[in-house]
Write a structure and sequence with these properties.
The structure holds two protein chains of two kinds. By secondary structure, chain A is mainly beta. Helices cover 14% and strands 44% of the residues of chain A. Chain A has helices spanning 18-26, 80-87, 153-162, 218-222, 225-229; strands spanning 10-14, 32-37, 41-48, 52-59, 65-68, 74-79, 96-102, 109-115, 121-127, 145-152, 169-174, 181-186, 191-196, 203-208, 212-217, 231-239, 244-250, 259-264. In chain A, strand 8 and strand 9 form a beta hairpin. In chain A, helix 1 (18-26) runs antiparallel to helix 2. Chain B is an alpha+beta fold. A 14-stranded antiparallel sheet of chain B has the order 5-1-7-8-9-6-2-3-4-18-17-16-10-14. In chain B, strands 13-12-11-15 form a four-stranded antiparallel sheet. In chain B, helix 1 runs antiparallel to helix 3 (86-93) and helix 4 (165-178) runs antiparallel to helix 5. The longest helix of chain B has 17 residues, at 10-26. The chains are: A mainly beta, B alpha+beta. At the A-B interface, helix 2 and strand 9 of A face helix 4 and strand 13 of B. Strand 9 of chain A pairs antiparallel with strand 13 (201-207) of chain B. Chain B: It comes from Vanessa tameamea (Kamehameha butterfly).
């Protein structure tokens, strides 16, 4: 690379920033995100309290050009709200190419956007960056996986939308016996239950050896709804330490893949 | 005082409705001035004083009305000024887009009213329906007419063609979520830049190759708050900081089909956005600059 950017910590370009925009929008439930560029790809992570961690992962092959220095950590905190607004500066109906530059620690993240259909206009953004706080490490190698479900995203989204909004707690009962999945919500005065047997249309695969009961905050579970809306499938993994991991793949027109991931911490029994 | 007019062409009727809708977004109240050859809509700020109005719109009556009769107060005061709630007018005119004919007249009911008689086609038969709206108006007394005079503005430093309003509005609306103020900068080489600066981000959208209609440079930047762009000759650049929301409202005028939009800037003080349509309607918006 001889265009003078080789000393940059990170540079990347993309023909269209649209899928990146919708992916980031799906995890934008907090003002700030941790932006980290690794040689395999780009990852943005958002945390709610210490209870939910959502991340968007864009493998490097999504970019037409992707370069990150390996001798330094490229990691900083950035306003994801501002980042998404900038990516969408020409509106949702316009495909625009995107270039990103990050010179060195403390420098702003530079974005250059140019719409594909109009040639006399461009936007450049300087988004300030801050030192990143450490991100929770929720992947526990010692905890085993106790259940794994693959569900159709739209159907699961519909199910979550049906749940009473005022409820705080959602209980997930998974068992090898019928009904394999039962979702119970507790409200002020009511308890409602939805059973989903593994033969149901929305269940693509189900594995669970031991019955397990897990409780989560319903508002936390609801945070994944935007991501569900842009995905076709969702993988739910329950680990023996109670942490729920949801993995989603963004529906895209091209062959390249982008992912989002949500770790949700369980409620402890009182 | 007398006023009676008829509109029968669909194009102008749609246009008229769009214009009034745009005005209603801008302000609760507006003044409708009727004169021999033109109909005006004027929106001024409450504490107007010496500042120009917010909006000045001229509609040539002969392009819109097939009949147009009016008699003013007397020989010396040939015009009629009516204060009207713009939302009322906009709502009543909404159906105009599919109407066959509009009759508009000044009537005296319990209070002075603009009576709109709209003839609507029926989807099932040859017969038509007639819908009548009475919109209360206030007849503006002569001594207040001077407040609604044609705006006298300083000579703009630059007049530059605007890119399509739709595109501009999308960008301005994104910027608006990040900052309440936008700096508009125009250069004599045909570049227009919209910029916001906050503690989080600096975002600039640049348009180039725009037609410059007039330039009265060089611009004096000696008192500027060091907008130093060392590699650029600033003497051909002028700018104005404006309220992002007001700017965005003007851009919603893109629903009025227009053939030309110009942006004139009085350096740091004022921007004038002017939109002209096929039918020679001229809409001018005045946004005063924010100076610290």
């Amino acid at each position: 690379m001889d265009d003078g950017t080789s000393e940059y910590y990170f540079t990347a370009s993309m023909d269209t920033g649209k899928s990146l925009y919708s992916l980031l929008k799906a995890i934008q439930f907090q003002e700030c995100a941790v932006f980290s560029a690794m040689s395999e790809g780009l990852k943005l992570t958002v945390e709610e309290g210490k209870c939910v961690q959502a991340s968007a992962y864009i493998p490097a092959d999504n970019f037409t050009e992707y370069h990150v220095r390996t001798d330094v950590d490229v990691m900083f905190k950035i306003s994801i709200a501002v980042l998404t607004e900038c990516l969408n500066i020409f509106g949702a109906s316009e495909e625009s190419s995107l270039k990103m530059y990050y010179r060195s620690e403390g420098s702003p993240l530079l974005l250059v956007l140019q719409p594909q259909s109009v040639h006399n206009v461009m936007t450049d953004c300087e988004i300030s960056t801050q030192t990143a706080n450490s991100v929770l490490e929720l992947k526990d190698e010692d905890a085993s996986e106790v259940a794994k479900l693959v569900l159709k995203a739209t159907a699961f989204l519909g199910l979550l939308a049906d749940l009473e909004r005022s409820c705080d707690i959602i209980e997930l009962n998974l068992s090898p016996d019928h009904p394999n999945v039962s979702i119970i919500t507790y409200g002020m005065q009511d308890r409602s239950c939805i059973d989903v047997p593994k033969s149901a249309d929305m269940v693509e695969s189900f594995s669970c050896d031991q019955p397990v009961t897990l409780k989560y905050q319903l508002p936390h579970i609801r945070l994944i709804m935007k991501a569900l809306a842009i995905s076709s499938k969702v993988v739910l993994r329950c680990s023996s330490n109670g942490i729920l991991l949801l993995q989603l793949k963004l529906e895209k027109e091209d062959q390249r893949q982008m992912f989002s991931e949500f770790y949700i911490l369980p409620l402890l029994d009182d | 005082m007398k006023f009676r007019a008829v509109m029968i062409d669909t194009g102008p009727m749609r246009e008229f409705s769009n214009i009034v809708t745009t005005i209603s977004k801008l302000s609760k109240e507006c003044v409708m001035r009727l004169s021999d050859d033109k109909l005006y809509f004027i929106v001024s700020e409450d504490n107007s004083g010496p500042t120009p109005p917010v909006l000045w719109c001229e509609i040539p009556q002969d392009m819109f009305f097939s009949e147009y009769q009016m008699i003013g107060i007397d020989e010396d005061h040939k015009d009629i000024y009516l204060g009207v709630v713009s939302a009322n007018l906009a709502r009543s005119l909404m159906t105009l887009k599919s109407a066959k004919c509009l009759k508009i007249k000044l009537t005296k009911k319990q209070c002075p009213c603009l009576t709109l008689e709209i003839e609507m086609p029926s989807s099932t038969s040859q017969q038509t329906r007639q819908v009548t709206h009475d919109i209360p108006v206030i007849v503006v007394p002569r001594k207040l007419w001077s407040e609604f005079q044609e705006p006298r503005v300083p000579q703009p430093d630059i007049s530059i063609e605007l890119p399509t309003l739709k595109q501009l509005r999308t960008t301005v609306d994104r910027m608006r979520t990040m900052s309440p103020e936008i700096v508009i900068r125009a250069s004599s080489e045909g570049r227009l830049t919209l910029q916001i600066k906050t503690s989080m981000a600096k975002v600039s959208t640049r348009f180039k190759d725009l037609r410059v209609e007039a330039f009265e440079g060089p611009i004096d930047h000696s008192d500027s708050e060091t907008e130093s762009q060392t590699n650029e000759d600033m003497s051909n650049v002028c700018y104005c900081r404006v309220d992002a929301k007001k700017f965005s409202i003007f851009l919603s005028a893109d629903q009025i089909s227009h053939n030309q939009t110009m942006c004139s800037i009085v350096h740091k003080k004022l921007i004038i956005l002017c939109l002209q349509t096929e039918e020679n309607v001229k809409l001018q918006f005045f946004i005063t600059g924010i100076v610290y």
